[in-house]
Request: fold
Amino acid sequence: MKKTLKRWFPLFGLPTLAAFTVGFLVPFVVGLALSFCRFTTVSDARFVGLANYKSILGDGDFLHALWFTALFTLVSVVLINLLAFAVALPLTKGLRGTNLFRTVFFMPNLIGGIVLGYIWQLIFNGVLAMFGRTLTYSPVYGFWGLVILMCWQQVGYMMIIYIAGLQSIPGELYEAARIDGANPRQILFRITLPLSMPAITICTFLTLTNSFKLFDQNLALTAGQPSNKTQMLALNIYDTFYSRAGWEGVGQAKAVVFFVLVAGLALIQLYITRRREVQQ
Reply:
């Protein structure tokens, strides 16, 4: 055993930890430093202080993208988790054909975001063409198109996590509750939901972060149209960095703000949901 540990220590020990730390830390530090500079390439970076961050406050497209992303994330997180839990609950009741249903619901998660966006763009535009509309006719169409796409892709993945959480609840608790006269509604809210909080914590974290940093589906489905009204934060940062000459530093500053927002929201969500977890 000791020989095995000595053999694998260089791979899993301090040298590997140091290598990973440097590998992750260096790009982050460089990116953070460039957010305080004006540049077209790293070699010509010129320190400008907080000028890039001040430019963000006057960028109406970024502020609208922030509002649009927050609204989209709220709606998506609620709908995805409700639908995933609603699908997972009957699939844990021993019904026939549950493996087939799990596979069918999980398959959309295997499709890449760009491909998925173009597929749904064709579907939505085909339906809206009957009414003389397109997906980019109104921001409302683009918003709900993104919500439907996100739900269709993510529900199956979250369903698998919820099924694992529901199956870990001891059956004796349900039997005892029925003997005590509890009705299905009381069993759901007093036993199932409290004991499913670990799964709810994971699924909420994943849907929150995935929705907030959505990029490829947004690019393929609407590309931010009409007039950048359906542009989310990740796409706004991309357009700022690559579509506006001399705005690379501002795009880098937006990326730093984006990172802080996603990390902060994720940590707050984890803190709130974990406090409600019940130890079995």
